[in-house]
Amino acid sequence: MSIMRSPVLLIAMVVALVPATARAQTYTPPRTADGQPDLQGIWMPAGTFYNIQDLEFQAVYQTFAASDSAQRGRSLVVDPPDGKIPYQPWALEKSNLVLKNHAEPTAQFLDPNARCFLHGVPRHLNNREFEIFQPKGHVVIFNMAHHTYRAIPLNAAPRPPEAIKLYMGDSRGRWEGNTLVVDVTNNNDQTWFDVVGSFHSDAMRVTERLTPINADAIAYEAVITDPKVYTRPWTFALRFNRIKDYGSEIWEEACHENNERTLELMLKR
Amino acid sequence: MPAGLGIVEGNDIPYQPWALAKQQANYAARATADPERRCYLPGVPRVMYLPYPFQIFQTAQHIAMTFEWAHVVRRIYVNTPHPPGPIEWWMGDSRGRWEGDTLVVDVVHFTDKTWFDRAGNFHSSALHVVERYTPMGPNHIQYEATIEDPMVFTRPWTISVPIYRRTEANVRLLEYECYTFGFEHTWLKPPQ
Q1: Is the Cβ–Cβ distance between A50 and A196 less than 8 Å?
Q2: Longest Cα separation, chain A
Q3: What is the largest CA-CA distance in chain B?
Q4: With a cut of 0.85, is the ipTM above it?
Q5: Whole-prediction pTM value?
Q6: Has residue A213 got a pLDDT over 50?
Q7: Does B79 touch chain A (CB under 8 A)?
């Protein structure tokens, strides 16, 4: 998988932008051995990993045909209605500086992903292929890129102390009907939402909702709260489509210094 | 890392003569040459005895191991064949089967870029590992790995080491991100 296949993705993403909340929840998935709604399989986010506030922007930067002009400026941010992350003024300035410098970055404008760090939440669900695995009492997500993983226990075990900050945060999940609801705390301030410097602080909390809408699609919403950086909570939404390109297994894709593939993906567009 | 006695049965790894010389050269250069220092995925069996915790998730078809060190992942598919090679993966390709209560995992398709330890013990991409995970009690697995590599060793050899469950009430994996790129200039810390 490389970004060269992304024209197909772009078409898929344009089709997928009906807000998740607008869909009736009528699909009932099969159950796992321990009774969870079964979302297992390999999925591809039908969004954009490049600039979550502007899909057209991705088309321009990746030099494939621009999408329909009606899509110009379409955003994965579904709330607020203007599709913009509600940054506080200082934070908008900081994010814009990265946006301006990201294409030919000096070190301080380099996407943290290019350094092989864990992607963080929600970005790891908006970055190419991932697998959902549901052993007893858990939902575990495995990304192909960078072998990022996240374990989501389906219980109310005590959280780590607030001072412990993690790239992937601390997740607790529960099922509300067929919807997996995950609260994510203990996030650090080292991850972005996309390539162009959309960011948060270590006060971020995320509430995610994964709702299967048919056998091959999941609606995803994440409500992002971070009073240090934003003026209000905001909501990010996209869709996951089941993919069968890899059979039932995703294979190793390492990330390390001098990894040509990482450099190609992150620095040479 | 704390000191410890070896885990190789019979103590000595049966290197071919050229390979013993290479191991000694690796040892001399270990402060810079150990692939662990570059944050490469550590390979099998080394990942199993790095001094960091890992978690096992399993269903009937599939066993997943997630590691704290460098967010390494192992996926062990049960009763399925290896994909055809040649493939060079840092962690190899793992296929498991149950022999009674013992999980037996056959691992092939390695690179020649990982070591067994910090002392320069090494292998080629022809490495073939057969692991045996035998539960000895509720909190204790005996781990054995038979290592075969006709390019490097004169015969197969075996390691054996116990793996103990972490039993703290609040245990969870944390993150040990391995990083070699240099922290001096990041977006949080621009150059002065």
Answers
A1: yes
A2: 50
A3: 62
A4: yes
A5: 0.88
A6: yes
A7: no
